[in-house]
C-alpha cells in the first residue's frame, strides 16, 4: 500500500469524523457558485476565480443533496504561472477543513482537498499560498464528486 493511499484514507476518515455529524454547511461569497446542481450527481465542475490582493479569498457556495458524497476540490493557476492556491471548506458550525497548497501549475490541477459530505450547504474558499505578486490573480477551482 502506498503512503499516498494511506494518507488519503486517513484524511478521508478524519474528514468523515470531523464533518459528517455537522453536515458541513455554510454559504456566501464574493464570486460565482461552484455548484449549481447537487454534488450527488457524480460530475466534475470548474469555476474561474480572481482575487484582488494576497489577503483576499474567493468564496463559493456548494450544495450537497446526497448522503455521504465524497468530493475532491483542487485548483489550477491561470495567467502568469507560479501562483499556488489552497482550498478550504466550512460547515454551518464554523468548522473548517483545509487542503494542501497547489504547485502553481497552469497545466494541471493540484492541492487536493478530499471531503465526505452529508446533505447541506457549504462554503468553499480559495486563497493564495504563495505567488508571483501580480494582482489581480486567478485560477480555476475544480470539484469532482
Description:
The chain contains 1 helix and 8 strands; from the N terminus they run αββββββββ. The protein has one domain: Jelly Rolls. A 4-stranded antiparallel sheet has the order 1-8-3-6. β4 and β5 form a beta hairpin. The N terminus is likely disordered. With 145 residues, it is mostly beta strands. The two termini are 24 Å apart.
What descriptors fit this protein?
43% strand, mainly beta, 1 helix, 12% helix, single chain, four-stranded antiparallel β-sheet, disordered N terminus, Jelly Rolls, 145 residues
Topology:
Blueprint: H1 3-19, E1 44-51, E2 57-64, E3 69-78, E4 84-90, E5 96-98, E6 110-117, E7 120-130, E8 137-144
Antiparallel strand pairs: 1-8, 2-7, 3-6, 3-8, 4-5, 4-7
Offer a quick outline of the entry:
The protein has 145 residues and is mostly beta strands. It has one helix and eight strands, in the order H-E-E-E-E-E-E-E-E.
By secondary-structure content and strand pairing, the structural class works out as mainly beta
**How large is the radius of gyration?**
14 Å
Number of domains: 1
CATH class: Mainly Beta
Amino acid at each position: 500500500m502506498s503512503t499516498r493511499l494511506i494518507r488519503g484514507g486517513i484524511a478521508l476518515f478524519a474528514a468523515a469524523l470531523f464533518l459528517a455529524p455537522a453536515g458541513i454547511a455554510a454559504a456566501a461569497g464574493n464570486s460565482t457558485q461552484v455548484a449549481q446542481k447537487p454534488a450527488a450527481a457524480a460530475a466534475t465542475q470548474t469555476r474561474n476565480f480572481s482575487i484582488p490582493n494576497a489577503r483576499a479569498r474567493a468564496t463559493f457556495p456548494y450544495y450537497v443533496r446526497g448522503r455521504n458524497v465524497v468530493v475532491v476540490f483542487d485548483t489550477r493557476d491561470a495567467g502568469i504561472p507560479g501562483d499556488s492556491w489552497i482550498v478550504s471548506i466550512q460547515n454551518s458550525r464554523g468548522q473548517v477543513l483545509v487542503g494542501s497548497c497547489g504547485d502553481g501549475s497552469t497545466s494541471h490541477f493540484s492541492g487536493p482537498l478530499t471531503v465526505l459530505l452529508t446533505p447541506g450547504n457549504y462554503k468553499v474558499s480559495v486563497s493564495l499560498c504563495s505567488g508571483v505578486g501580480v494582482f489581480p490573480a486567478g485560477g480555476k477551482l475544480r470539484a469532482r464528486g
